[in-house]
């Protein structure tokens, strides 16, 4: 997760959130939900403009917002996506806190290999969290295009994790990391998390034959 933390300035954003009080965190939550709603509508609008195929499309239209038509099942998809986003955000915060406990403050290179907490289940819980957040959001859009992009997101994150292991983690920790990979076989997601994502994908796909 090293290069992602550098790219998105997790250090600065993490410190702001951790040092803030209740009001600061409440404001962050409101902004997060607002951002989710706006992002949801933006993607629905874009997919609508490109002529996207949508499952469960034989249901009666419940609401029109601009050019975006919403049916009853959209509400269920939306709520499911929001729950996933909240879960992923909380998980992201906890993993970030754990990562900071192992990071050298001078050069941001970890001074120890994390093998506790989330790291007892998967080797790259941060990448797995991004899959939960990104793929979960895309699958909540009730969109064939979203389903395809979600699959691409999963593949990209697995490639990122493999690259980081080979180019950064193994050179830093050597045999210690090799032994760790033997103990923790799952790279990004646990088996239950994989099953949930597959079921979400199948549920969306089933809508095309309804």
TrEMBL record:
Protein's UniProt name: Isoprenylcysteine carboxyl methyltransferase
PANTHER family: PROTEIN C-TERMINAL S-ISOPRENYLCYSTEINE CARBOXYL O-METHYLTRANSFERASE (PTHR12714:SF11), PROTEIN-S ISOPRENYLCYSTEINE O-METHYLTRANSFERASE (PTHR12714)
Domain of life: Bacteria
UniProt source species: Ruminiclostridium papyrosolvens DSM 2782
Keywords from the named record: Membrane, Methyltransferase, Transferase, Transmembrane, Transmembrane helix
Matches recorded under Gene3D superfamilies: 1.20.120.1630
One of the record's GO cellular component terms: endomembrane system
Annotated TM spans: 21-43, 75-93, 131-159, 188-209
Membrane topology: Multi-pass membrane protein
Transmembrane listed as a keyword: yes
Compartment(s): Endomembrane system
InterPro entries noted in UniProt: Phopholipid_MeTrfase
An MF annotation (GO) of this entry: methyltransferase activity
Main subcellular location of this protein, as a coarse class: membrane
GO process terms (BP): methylation
């Amino acid at each position: 997760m090293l290069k992602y933390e550098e790219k998105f300035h997790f250090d600065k954003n993490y410190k702001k959130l951790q040092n803030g009080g209740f009001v600061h965190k409440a404001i962050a939550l409101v902004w997060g939900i607002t951002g989710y709603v706006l992002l949801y509508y933006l993607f629905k609008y874009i997919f609508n403009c490109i002529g996207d195929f949508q499952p469960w499309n034989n249901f009666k239209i419940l609401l029109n917002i601009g050019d975006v038509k919403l049916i009853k099942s959209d509400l269920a998809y939306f709520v499911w996506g929001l729950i996933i986003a909240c879960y992923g955000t909380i998980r992201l915060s906890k993993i970030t806190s754990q990562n900071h406990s192992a990071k050298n403050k001078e050069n941001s290179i970890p001074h120890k290999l994390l093998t506790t907490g989330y790291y007892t289940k998967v080797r790259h819980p941060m990448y797995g969290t991004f899959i939960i957040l990104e793929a979960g959001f895309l699958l909540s859009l009730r969109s064939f295009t979203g389903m395809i992009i979600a699959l691409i997101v999963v593949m990209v994150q697995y490639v990122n994790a493999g690259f980081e292991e080979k180019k950064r983690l193994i050179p830093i920790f050597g045999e210690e990391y090799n032994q760790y990979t033997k103990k923790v076989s799952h790279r990004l997601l646990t088996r239950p998390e994989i099953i949930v994502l597959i079921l979400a994908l199948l549920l969306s796909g089933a809508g095309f034959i309804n």
